[in-house]
Each structure stands twice: as C-alpha cells, then as structure tokens.
Amino acid sequence: MPNDFPLRKIIHVDMDAFYASVEQLDNPDLRGKPIAVGGSSKRGVVAAASYEARKYGVRSAMSSVLAQRNCPGLIFVKPRFERYKEISHQIRNIFYEYTDLVEPLSLDEAYLDVTVNKKGNPSASLIAKEIRQKIYDTIGLNASAGISINKFIAKVASDINKPNGQKTVNPEEVSLFLEELEIRKFYGVGKVTAEKMYKLGIFTGKDLKLKTLEFLEGNFGKNGSYYYNVVRGIHTSPVKPHRIPKSVGAERTFNENLSSEIFMLERLDHIAEELEKRLKKANIAGKTVTLKIKYSDFTLNTRSKTLAYYISSKSLILETAKELLYQEKLQNSVRLLGISLANLNTEKKEKTTDKESISVQLKFEF
Predict the structure, then answer these.
(1) Which Enzyme Commission numbers does its entry carry (predicted)?
(2) Residue 232, C-beta contacts closer than 8 angstroms, at least 6 positions apart
(3) Domains of the chain with bracketed CATH
C-alpha cells in the first residue's frame, strides 16, 4: 500500500447481537435461547436475532413468518428502543474515557481514533481489549472490535472474530489481508454489487486489485474509484465526532396491505407529522423529499423531488409526498410507506476534515 497516506490507529467497536443481547441481559430466562427482537405477526420483521437464533438462519430484516419457519422454537420479544439507547449511552461513555474522537454509526457500533489517546497507551490492540473488557464488566455485554490504519479496514476486521473477539490488521499486513478477503466481505459491497462483481470475475480483493480504475468506473460509476482505492488500503476519511445526518425520515409498515390511495394518504399524514417532529427536534430543514413505497411482493420504489427552498413543516412535506404518490400508477398493494428529507441545511455547515489527519511513519505499534 502507498506510504504517503496518513495512517491512524482506528478501532471499530461493534456490539454482539446488541438488541437481543440486551433482552437476554435484562431477562435471565431468555439467556441461551433463540430469540428475535421484533413483531411475531404475519407482517412482522426481525430487528435483531440472538446468536442462538442465527444458528437456524434467522437474520435481521427477515420476515417473522420465515424466521419462525426456520426456527420453530423462536421466542419473539418486543423492541425497547429507550432501553437500547440507555445502554448505548453507557457504552459511549466508556469510549470517551479513551478518546474524544468517537464517531457513532448506530446505537451498537462506533469508530474510535486512538492514535493519540487519554490513556497514553501506544497499543490500539490493547486499548480495544481493555474497552471490550470494561463493557463486559460494567454492563454485562460482549463486544467485538477491529483495529487498523483506517476506518474501512477496521470495520471489515471487526467482523472477522465475532462474537466476542477482535482482529488487528497491522500496516504491513494490510495488502495481504485485503487481497485474501472475499469480495462480499468488503464494506460497501452489497448483495447486488457482489453478484455483479462475480459476473465480472471478481471474487476476492486480489481479483479486484487487478482491475483498472477505468474498468471499475465504467462498470460501477462513481463507486468504481472507491473500490479501486480501498482494496489498496486507501481510505482517508477521519473519525468525525459530530456526524451530521444526510437525511431524516420516518416510515410505517402496515398490518394489512393497502390498495386504496385514500388510506395511503391517511398514513402519509401520520408519517409526515412524525417527520416534522424529528426535524424540529434536530432543528433541521431540507429541500429533497423522497417517498418510499414497498409493495406486497417486497419490491421497492422511491420517488423524489427537490424544491427550490428548505422545508420542515408537515403541510409542505405532505403536499410534496402526495404529489409523488400520484406521480405514477401504483404497481401493487402497499405494505410500507416512508418519507425522508435530504439535501439538508446542515450539509453546508459540515466541514471537510479529511486533510486534517495525523501523518505517521508506516511502522508503528498497534
């Protein structure tokens, strides 16, 4: 990998089966049993599954009907997001004991830059081990971690020794690690992209590395340069302590499929009201309204419109959402509707800090 790019000591901490683990923590009767956090109705979806349930092929985003078919003894537990937020806050406070450079990705995972840290510990690997132990001792939950020179590699590495493990990829190990990695394990390569890469003869990082920038951009557009760089260990994005959202949204999955636009408008009214609350709470407005429609056959359709001015009120959001709903004929009955607002007024406030990085020698202790 190139020597002229900044290297950092980055830890990616990822809680193991977070929602399900919190439920097992709070209810000892659930420990060691296959549980799914989510609704058990025919319209329900699994939000999280314990490792005991995962052995049966139960996964997040799976329909509850299929999950129960895979695991007849599956126990469904209603989600308690306030409790998950409470635990997440406790975990984050542990992170701040080591560094202020903490970038949360969600309630259960975050990046930490420990190149310079509050403990004066030169070993990012030992810091990760200490953090994981402190989370277990203080809260009673297991976490996994990835440690490397940038966020991309740390994120990929955190999945290697799950659950309750960690993986360090030292600077001199980066090239071989990425070359041997299956392409579907690259962060940012989803199922559809992976299938496309397979058809192009790309199965591992080594295969990807053999492709030219022109080839990748020709086949994957603007993502082509991202793939070209990350397989070479180049990812200069710093840990951003105050992540600014790119969009704010709200959505609802219905107990019964909707085929009448009148009923859909009623639901959109409630969704727009919820979105307005979230926008006001965060003091955010946006210009681009997107309507998300998921049909009964699970196909997804999105329709967007960008306005000339920022909006945040329910009335204007709903007005635009209605326009998008009538934009084209519905293909089927609808199981989910959502509205999101992007092109936010926060984006102009965000500072680009990619160049504000710590430059160090290639050889330094992890």
Answers:
(1) 2.7.7.7
(2) 1, 2, 175, 178, 209
(3) 10-16+82-173 (3.30.70.270), 18-80 (3.40.1170.60), 179-230 (1.10.150.20), 247-346 (3.30.1490.100)
